[in-house]
Amino acid sequence: MITLYDYWRSSASYRVRIALGLAGLDWQAVAVNLVEGQHKTPAHLARNPQGLVPVLEIDGLRLTQSLAIVEYLDETRGLGLLPATPADRARVRAIAHAIAMDIHPICNLGTARHAVSASDGAITMEGWMQHFIGRGLAAVEAMLPGGDFCWAEGVTLADLCLMPQVYNAQRWQVDLADMPKIRRVAERLAAIQAFAAAHPDRWA
Ligand SMILES: N[C@@H](CCC(=O)N[C@@H](CS)C(=O)NCC(=O)O)C(=O)O
């Protein structure tokens, strides 16, 4: 049995849920409640010394880091999430990394909570999220060529990163009015079964 340790609102877990759906795999979810601190328990730290979700158990392996997991599924299940040429792969990875490596860590629950508590009220959770998600997505908007997907004519790694980030943006009321390319892609992706099935509302 394939097991995903995840949290419904975790955008890194959301990426992996989409990939599992695209692969058409049967899998079970085990919830790790981040709000209750379950990710810091010895049981979860034994799964992932970083104390983060997601963790995927598959093929006798225990994998961490959502992009590493998605690329593992891409390579072993032939998902075609990366384009054929090195130049296009670099472009797709650049969009994916702009989200997963630049926006996401700053807006992680642990990071944002620390900033709020260390600022003695000067920083609010909403203000932090709106600032960093807004600024990060504005750059992604400029990186997108424009079309139904983040890159060319189909789903790539970049789309698996964008959709959860758009969910987060909406959750924190980030204004996407000036981001028509992102809105168009998100609307197209929402119509794909694997994306719809991975939405946090289906896992709460
Ligand atoms: N780079 C990691 C990030 C994982 C990560 O930050 N997960 C978040 C949820 S989206 C988490 O577990 N946060 C717990 C915390 O911040 O304490 C990945 O892509 O898997």
UniProtKB/TrEMBL annotation:
Domain GST C-terminal: start-end pairs: 85-204
Cross-referenced InterPro entries: Glutathione-S-Trfase_C-like, Glutathione-S-Trfase_C_sf, Glutathione_S-Trfase, Glutathione_S-Trfase_N, GST_Zeta, GST_Zeta_N, Thioredoxin-like_sf
Residue ranges of every copy of the GST N-terminal domain listed in the record: 1-81
CDD domains to which the protein is assigned, alphabetical: GST_N_Zeta (cd03042)
Protein keywords: Isomerase
Gene Ontology cellular component terms for the protein in this record: cytoplasm
Keyword Isomerase: yes
Entry superkingdom: Bacteria
Pfam families in alphabetical order: GST_N (PF02798)
GO molecular function list: glutathione transferase activity; maleylacetoacetate isomerase activity
GO biological process: glutathione metabolic process; L-phenylalanine catabolic process
PANTHER family for the chain: GLUTATHIONE S-TRANSFERASE YFCF, MALEYLACETOACETATE ISOMERASE
Family statement: Belongs to the GST superfamily. Zeta family.
Protein name: Maleylacetoacetate isomerase
Gene source species: Paracoccus zhejiangensis
Lineage start: Bacteria, Pseudomonadati, Pseudomonadota, Alphaproteobacteria, Rhodobacterales
